[in-house]
Amino acid sequence: MATQANALGAPIERREGRAKVTGEALYATEYTPPGCAYAWPVTATVARGRVTSVDTGSALGLPGVLAVITPDSAPRLAGTDDPTLALLQDARVPHHGWPVALAVAETLEAARAAAEAVRVVYETEPHAALLDENLADAYQPDEANGGHPAERRQGDPEGAFAGAPVTVDVRYRLPPLFNHPMEPHGATALWHEGRLTAYDTSQGADAVRAALAELFALPEDRVTVVSEHVGGGFGSKGTPRPHVVLAAMASLHTGRPVKLTLPRGRLAELVGHRAPTRHRLRLGAEPDGTLVSVMHEVTTHTSRIKEFVEQAAVPARVMYAAENLLTTHQVAALDVPTPSWMRAPGEAPGMYALESAVDELAHALGMDPIEFRVRNEPREEPDSGRPFSSRHLVECLREGARRFGWSDRDPRPGTRRSGPWLSGTGVAAATYPVLVSPSRATVTVHPDGLYVVRINATDIGTGARTVLAQVAAEALGVGVEEVRTEIGTTGLPRAPLAGGSSGTASWGWAVHEACRSLSRQLQERTGPLPPEGLTASADTKGSADEESPYARHAFGAHFAEVAVDADTGEVRVRRLLGVYAAGRILNERTARSQFIGGMVMGLGMALTERGSVDAASGAFIGSDLAGYHVPAHADVPAVEAHWIDERDEHLNPMGSKGIGEIGIVGTAAAIGNAVHHATGVRCRELPLTPDRVHGGL
Questions:
Q1: Are 207 and 171 in contact (CB under 8 A)?
Q2: pLDDT per residue as tens digits for the range 556-606
Q3: CB within 8 A of 385, min separation 6: which ones?
């Protein structure tokens, strides 16, 4: 059997760690085939209209320039149900930053110079790009993201609110937010004898292969996509993106391998962003703290070419017991880039608003915010009425309070001061759904005792290779050093993307089943293994996608301590603590890294990260790392992540829940609640920049 040091849950180091720090691990644009050329996009400088002419003469006259591809010369693509990938096919400009040409040259520098030399003339049309100026045009969609109904209603929420003795009616605003993975979006593409190979930075190579096969009218077996190492994604690499399509088009057009990396300042316009959201929260309670009405109404924006509706009201359907509940989504279609997935879509903005409003109501009641949450703990999921497979939120709150020293807290706002610094503490709850999809996997045992697991999982920095080896080792009853994992390329057994905190739960299920099948074969077998080894496979279709009678969610509690400079409004976070109930933890080391990473991202959401749209041009402002500020180590001296021992038999064979996203969900609200406790000022718009906080003071 596997030794304790190799057991599932042990803090084993990442298998690819050394390869990454030594440069041995290759990312998508580090593959350089012989004769490789480089591409650079030319993007629209207007918010809406048509291209009337493209002058490529100056660009083509520059040294080393191979081509400038325009809608007139671009390869024709087949139909697609994703209009964000229908690139260089016509003269329309649906938003600022839309690709209108593509320069290809012998070097990256030459390609960039050529792109800058292209002259484009536009016929512009009136545009609308600001959500707040177009709220009246918002409509109710059929669904919010994830297939959630746009509206859910139970009881008489308006009537119960009107009759509630204690109420809050508040509005919260969140700006656009940008995914900024360390590795920008890039791909290397090459055609050979009618076959397309793409090295892509993607969270799911199988989805990219399917999209490329559709666009270029190829059988899927003539497309290979390699995503062996991926430098982060946070959702922005969760679906096929324009960069890989443009690279493949450039390679087809020139007959050369082509490498394309999107400039960081263009990511928000080409690969998605978290849409701005406007929240109205109406909560009503009895004097004893019993919630009688919960209403969460969300308005957001989408582009005109593809509807994407941030499902930010959905968490209110999960969190608190109230007989009268209303959750709605409205969306305005504007001349903006298409928003997309960003870490904990829906939950991160939705829970910021909800958990801030819950804190406001607890303060109005004169109740401790932890006790208020405990009092309104539901017995089953409020929206569906299904029992929870497990729900240990109260345990997370209690354990977090013990670790944080919550009992020593003076509940009065604005009472702790040292010189100009006001200090305070805050708490917020967190939830994220348990998602799982069908997957396939194989495992082969070789005569030398090596077990090889094959599955087209994607490691986006979470340690998937390591954790899947641990899953296999436990299922096989061997040491983890006897297991090798092969992931990250099409041709391996098909697997879902790394997203929605569902990757390990989905892949691990298939790996576990394949390994158990192999174990049974070995038990029944006599004699030596064949030279090629013995292989078993698994496909979890029909089991992983079977509808569960349980409501399956992870939960957590976030605590924050802040100091606020009363003279300047500067907020400094001194401590962050997260305590989670996320099923069985499969690797203590990588899990803690994921939790802390999410919390730091929530810190940025609270204090520094903000996108804005220029009304005149429709362009995102400050979309590179010079203008879009993400947290650094010095921004929070102490971050701690812990979890409770949660056993849940209604998930998957490992008993695991996703952990990549729940770390961000409650962090911003905990920080905002701490700022209120420190100052007595409630800031209802993120980020909590010094000007906003000082204005309140």
A1: no
A2: 999 999 999 999 999 999 999 999 999 999 999 999 999 999 999 999 999
A3: none
**pTM exceeding the 0.90 threshold for the entire prediction:** yes
**Counting Cβ atoms within 10 Å, is residue 229 exposed (0-12), middle (13-18) or buried (19+)?**
buried
Q: Is the pLDDT of residue 2 over 50?
A: no
Percent of the chain with pLDDT over 70: 99
Contacts of 316 (CB under 8 A, 6+ apart): 294, 296, 325, 327, 350, 354
Q: Could you tell me the two tokens for 388?
A: 């929870």
Which residue type is seen at 194? Answer: G
In Å, how far from its chain's centre is CA 35?
A: 36
Count of other CB atoms within 10 angstroms of residue 106: 16
Token pair for residue 183?
Answer: 């590795």
C-alpha distance from residue 193 to each of 196, 208, 220, 255, 543 (Å): 9, 20, 15, 11, 40
Burial class (CB in 10 A: 0-12, 13-18, 19+), 142: exposed
Closest among 53, 169, 167, 177 to 118, alpha carbons compared: 53
Q: Which residues pair with 388 in a beta bridge?
A: 551
pLDDT in tens, 240-255: 999 999 999 999 999 9
Count of residues in the chain: 697
Beta bridge partners of 38: 105, 259
For 603, the 3-state DSSP assignment is helix
Q: How far is CA 52 from CA 49, 124, 437, in A?
A: 9, 10, 46
Whether the CB-CB separation of 486 and 464 falls below 8 Å is answered with: no
Adjacent-strand bridge partners of 559: 427, 577
Identify residue 680 by its one-letter amino acid code.
Answer: G
Q: Are 143 and 149 in contact (CB under 8 A)?
A: yes
Q: How far apart are CA 105 and CA 112, in angstroms?
A: 9
Burial 677-692 (b: 16+ CB within 10 A, else e): bbbbbbbbebbbbeeb
Does residue 634 sit in helix, strand or coil? helix
Give the residue from 573, 578, 555, 645 showing the smallest Cα distance to 404: 578
C-alpha distances in Å from residue 347, one per residue of 47, 312, 314 = 30, 6, 7
Q: Which of 371, 313, 319, 321 is nearest to 346 (CA)?
A: 313
Closest of 239, 238, 237, 257 to residue 247, by C-alpha: 257
Q: Transcribe 39-69 into DSSP letters.
A: EEEEE-SSSSEEEEEEE-HHHHTSTTEEEEE
Token pair, residue 68, equals 């400038």
Q: What is the rounded distance in angstroms from the CA atom of residue 117 to the CA atom of residue 68?
A: 10
Residue whose token pair is 């094959």: 454
**3 state SS of 21:** helix
3-state SS assignment for residue 539: strand
Report DSSP state, residue 77: P
Q: What is the distance between the alpha carbons of residues 100 and 78, in angstroms, rounded to a whole number? A: 18
Give the catalytic positions in this structure: 661
Nearest to 469 by CA among 437, 417, 512: 512
What is the reported pLDDT for 1? 40
Q: What is the pLDDT of residues 85-140, one digit of tens each?
A: 999 999 999 999 999 999 999 999 999 999 999 999 999 999 999 999 999 999 99
Say which residue the tokens 């962050």 belong to: 576
CA-closest candidate to residue 472, choices 4, 5, 6: 6
| Residue 305: φ, ψ to 5° | -100, -15
